[in-house]
């Protein structure tokens, strides 16, 4: 067994071995693995008579690890029709552990990018089980397993591993605050969190406090008034509406500047649009459509945060902060008018797009903007295509015992595993809690505007487009929804508002081509740009002034706001979001 190792900072390189042990696969004769842990990840080196094969499981792909004991085997009746329980490992001191087995099991959970010919890349859940049983006492085996666990968890967090610990460490981490809208989209917010997200949080040993929203603006009030310092981050489960509430709740706090610096936001898609969740996955190069919740779940456990641009939006009666878009005309009409089809999920937008295309409208007004200078050109990150190494869903290894043992290895049956309730500190607040809080005179704080107020004249340095418009839509991230790639090159913090202007002289054929291209980002083409009928302008600020003799819809992040003048100003990298 390895003795305690003290490593100096200058000795630590990405490839330096932090921990190493030899493991055996008893189901295969003379099958030996050397397992090494470095900053790069977990290296599994298989030694046979003729060759050595090495597989690296990247630190980036590992989300957590847990130490368990084997479960006491229960006797079964020969006439029993139900299958045996598949859970063969339990927590220490659970009362169900098999005290005759002195082994300690380290379960390492990873989500590894796999690619096969003709199949899109996706992440596959993999469990690496290391069974420590070199000593005759469980306490000694557990001590070694815990050493590995602690170092792996430090690497996951991105911390410097200066010392390999010799003892156990039970430092408590702050919980996550989870705000879930059970009625978002098709009404599956609660099920999405419990079935898709909780298992991954448990694998990563991350505790949370879950609060279900009970009424409109519940999340906004909660974030505005709570003691937010007790949580490490805010996770919202639902659609764009609950994200809008949480962000604006932060800016309604007197301590907003400290909160946005120290409390990142995580997004779990559960609505009809899910534009921000899709944009985060797009920028990170994570597969999304094959498993829409996995990139978001990974972002909660990886301790990675990125700055995100926010737009300060001013109307005649309010100031709000926007993360997604400001719209007037065609897309806003679809967003608001299709609410009656909410039970259909994302399909509601497709159906109502056809209706609005047939009954096409246009609106009179003026669009003012400040062009973005020296606009950078970005490309979305591409998935790295390394060697196509197929890694099995379970890798089960164990150390050699000090003396010959007759006990068999207990499988965790990862494909069928029921998830343990290891987040014992997690809490759940049901919808039966108290009703709406009384308004306490909320006030919008946040950074001060550098633009003239909405009632002042626009400076002569601003550019203006005057006429009739089918649509004006200002967007900041790449996606407006899961299947609308509005700005393929957009980043979370590129400091640009992308102002899409579609003039009234655009034909239905051109508009249809525009709509069909939204799914893959080909909606803006040189022909329409040159003709000036459909424009995509990079700007820093804008003002829309509709003709008030007409009526229509204006939206901010999909939320209906009053019809009238509206002004947006970008603040680069103002908040932090969790990214995979």
TrEMBL record:
The gene is LOC108562198. Gene3D superfamilies: 2.60.200.40, Probable inorganic polyphosphate/atp-NAD kinase, domain 1. Residues 171-317 form the DAGKc domain. InterPro entries: ATP-NAD_kinase_N, Diacylglycerol_kinase_cat_dom, Lipid_Phosphate_FormReg, NAD/diacylglycerol_kinase_sf, YegS/DAGK_C. It comes from Nicrophorus vespilloides (Boreal carrion beetle). Transmembrane segments: none annotated. It comes from the Eukaryota. This is Sphingosine kinase 2-like. Keywords: ATP-binding, Kinase, Nucleotide-binding, Transferase. Pfam families: DAGK_cat (PF00781), YegS_C (PF19279).
